[in-house]
Every structure is written in structure tokens, then in C-alpha cells.
TrEMBL record:
SUPFAM superfamilies: FAD/NAD(P)-binding domain. InterPro entries: FAD/NAD-bd_sf (IPR036188), FAD/NAD-binding_dom (IPR023753), NDH-2 (IPR045024). Belongs to the NADH dehydrogenase family. It comes from Helicobacter didelphidarum. Residues 3-335 form the FAD/NAD(P)-binding domain. This is NADH:ubiquinone reductase (non-electrogenic). The keyword NAD applies. It catalyses: a quinone + NADH + H(+) = a quinol + NAD(+). Its EC number is 1.6.5.9.
């Protein structure tokens, strides 16, 4: 029986496994390797880091996936031709779907790795929340003012959603333990001249006003030169300034998973693999022993055995010539698409047909829009080319995100308490 190996339980692979024809699970051996026993809603991790949510973003894999799928908890380290090397073993495959998540990108700025924390997983978000709580508790003992200073580096989607949620949650926590919230300093640092660059100037100013109301100081046009212990060095208007804080969160950039960079089998840049219209790598580096396999793949225009989906896939928008930004929306669409291709492929094998790539539909994607929450009860965004803001935008965002939980786990996935 052919072996299908899936790496990562993010939006891409979860959509693939929950949308594909269930009869396929009896025809082929399916194995999913993930470093945790659950899938988590990446789009809600900023609320976990701020302390607003906790376990409600988790979905145990054994509860939401078909029982015929083997689930292995392991840490993938490297990918080779026909083999995946993990911490606890090696796994062979006939077909490989790489759906690993993202990692933080420091852009080579000194001190980022050593002195900041990033929201890249559920565990990292929980660690940030613990660090915030510890800073508040330390202040009660030492009265060290920098324990009440919090810096968020990056004014993109994640940074703005996190800093908005953080401002609201810090106010609640300060009230509950007797800290004067007026002493708290919350900064959002952005190198570009505007935050939320995907939105219009109008929406940016709406977001800025809301953040100001929440007590956030937004520093735009502030290039981060270095992160130090308890300090961020920035350049503003040609001058260097130091912003002091004992809690520094890095949301300024992401790249693909480090596993890609550790796998010479792939041609990659920033841990992302360039893929073609069928979400297959445009180039693979075969060893001398695999030269025969390479000749076959290069000479026959048919689907080969590897797909890259989610945050590790560099997918170009043919209309603009730019790469699509990594979002849950495009990842889920990729998973659904590859699931359909696999259905076609396995059916053709069953009936001894040969499939040519050009006869198959190519991956297409058109973003439906995006909505950025700014604290509880408020959001800004664009849906179907129409700008929206305020409470109604927040409600729409909640409804859209709740669809994912419902699809995975019924209403329990939407209304589970922390």
C-alpha cells in the first residue's frame, strides 16, 4: 500500500485531511507527523500571548481526524528523497505533503534572537503570557518601572492584533492585582512610515486612533537597529533612541520553517520553496543515487510525489508577479486543492491511467479580504473590496474564524471555554 506522509498539522494539512474523500483513507496509508498532539488556530495566538484566551484555540488531532490516519508526535529535522528524518525516527514515504508552519525572521538584526520572544506557536504564546505575568508580579516587589514597559516590534497584522489585545488585557490584570495602569507603557515600533501596509491610509488612521485610545504609543518610521537586554535601539529621523522595556515581543517578520533550510534536498530562500502551478517544487536536489529518479521526473510531465503547502510554499500571483503573503486563508485553499489532486491521482492509479500535469487544473487563489482586530470588540478590514471598521467588522471577523472551528469540531470548536 502506498504511503502518504504529511508534515505539520496547520491549516493546510488540516483542510486537506478534513475535505478529501474519506474513501481514500482505506486505499492508501496516511501518516501525519506533528510536534504536538493538537492543531491550534494560529490566527488566535496573539490572544493567547496577551492572556485573553488559552486552550480554546486547541483542537486535539485524535478528535477531529479520521481514525484511519496514523498520528505521530515527533519533531521533523530534515527532509530527504523518500525519507523524512525526525528526532525520534525516520519515516519513508511514497508521497509527501509538506505543511510545516512558519518561523520568526530576525533579518539579521543584532539581539533579536537573544532578547526577544516571538509568537510562532501555541507554546511560545503561552511563554509570552507567562513572561508578562511575571513582569507584573516583579513590579509589585521591586517597583522597577521597566517591568511595566512592553515593546512590540512590528506594525503588521500580528503586531497590531497583539498590541491591541495586550493593552486591554494588561489593564484588566493591573486592576486585579492593584497596579496603576497609568504607569504602564506599551509601544509598537514600525520601521515603515505606516502600520498595516495592506490597508488604506484611512483604515490606518482609524487603527492608530483606536490604539491611542487603548494607551498604545505607535512609533512609525522607527528602524530597529538592535535589541538588548531590556532595551530596543531605534533610529528615528536620523537620530538614535533607546526604548526601555523588560518585555520585548518580536512580530516584525516571518519566514518558512527551519526544516526547509536544513534540507538541501530543496532549493529554498528564507526557508520557503518555490512551487509551480500545481504546488510542487520547481527544483529538487537529488543525490547521485537518485539520479535515475531525477531523470524520470524531468523527462515526464506528470505529477511527482512531493507537494509544498502552507507557510513553506512560495506561490506567485501571476496577475501581480508577486508572491502571496502567508495567510490561513491561502493555506486552507492549498490544502483543499492538493486533496483534490490526490483524489484524481489515486483514482487514475487504480484504473491504470497516466495523468499529465497540463490536464489538471492549476492552483488559483483570490483573497476574499482580511480583517484586523484591535482589541476586543473593534476591527478594521477590507472584504470584497469594501472597507469596514468598528464593532460590525469585529463581528464579521469572529464569524469567519468560527467557521474553521465548526468545520473541525462542530459547535464545540467554537464555544469551548478556556
Amino acid at each position: 500500500m502506498k504511503k502518504v506522509l504529511l508534515l505539520g498539522a496547520g491549516y493546510a494539512n488540516m483542510k486537506l485531511l478534513t475535505s478529501i474523500n474519506k474513501e481514500i483513507f482505506s486505499q492508501v496509508q496516511w501518516t501525519l507527523i506533528n510536534n504536538t498532539p493538537y492543531h491550534y488556530k494560529t490566527i488566535a495566538l496573539h490572544d493567547v500571548a496577551s492572556g485573553k484566551h488559552n486552550r480554546s484555540v486547541l483542537f486535539p488531532l485524535k478528535d477531529v481526524l479520521d481514525r484511519r490516519i496514523e498520528i505521530i508526535e515527533d519533531y521533523v529535522e530534515r527532509i530527504e528523497s523518500h525519507t523524512v528524518i525526525a528526532k525520534n525516527g525516520s519515516y519513508e514515504y511514497d508521497y509527501l505533503i509538506v505543511g510545516l508552519g512558519f518561523s520568526s525572521d530576525s533579518f539579521g538584526i543584532p539581539g533579536v534572537v537573544q532578547y526577544t520572544q516571538s509568537i510562532t506557536s501555541y507554546n511560545s504564546a503561552r511563554e509570552i503570557q507567562d513572561k508578562i505575568t511575571q513582569a507584573l508580579q516583579r513590579y509589585l516587589q521591586s517597583k522597577e518601572i521597566n517591568d511595566l514597559s512592553f515593546v512590540v516590534c512590528g506594525g503588521g497584522f500580528t503586531g497590531i492584533e497583539f498590541v491591541g489585545s495586550l493593552a486591554q488585557e494588561l489593564k484588566k490584570q493591573c486592576r486585579s492585582i492593584g497596579i496603576d495602569f497609568s504607569l504602564v507603557k506599551i509601544y509598537c515600533i514600525e520601521a515603515m512610515p505606516k502600520i498595516l501596509p495592506m490597508f488604506s491610509e484611512n483604515l490606518m488612521h482609524v487603527a492608530l486612533q483606536k490604539l491611542t485610545e487603548l494607551g498604545v504609543s505607535v512609533l512609525m518610521g522607527s528602524k530597529i537597529l538592535e535589541c538588548r537586554q531590556g532595551c530596543v535601539v531605534v533610529e528615528q529621523n536620523g537620530k538614535q533612541n533607546e526604548i526601555f522595556a523588560n518585555t520585548i515581543i518580536w512580530t516584525a517578520g516571518v519566514k518558512g520553517n527551519e526544516v526547509i533550510a536544513n534540507s538541501p534536498f530543496f532549493e529554498s530562500a528564507r526557508s520557503k520553496v518555490a512551487v509551480d502551478e500545481w504546488l510542487q517544487p520547481t527544483k529538487l536536489n537529488f543525490t547521485q543515487q537518485d539520479s535515475h529518479t531525477q531523470e524520470i521526473l524531468e523527462s515526464i510531465p506528470k505529477l511527482h510525489n512531493i507537494f509544498i503547502i502552507g507557510d513553506c510554499a512560495a506561490v506567485k500571483d501571476e496577475k501581480t508577479g508577486r508572491f502571496y503573503p502567508p495567510t490561513a486563508q491561502i493555506s486552507a485553499k492549498q490544502g483543499e486543492y492538493v486533496g483534490q489532486l490526490l483524489e484524481t491521482l489515486f483514482h487514475a492509479q487504480k484504473t491504470n491511467q497516466e495523468i499529465q500535469k497540463d490536464s489538471l487544473p492549476k492552483f488559483e487563489f483570490e483573497a476574499r479580504g482580511s480583517i484586523c482586530s484591535i482589541g476586543q470588540g473593534y476591527a478594521v478590514g477590507v472584504v470584497n473590496n469594501k472597507e469596514i471598521k468598528g464593532f460590525s467588522a469585529n463581528c464579521l471577523k469572529w464569524l469567519i474564524e468560527s467557521q474553521w472551528g465548526f468545520a473541525l469540531n462542530g459547535l464545540g470548536g467554537v464555544f469551548r471555554a478556556d
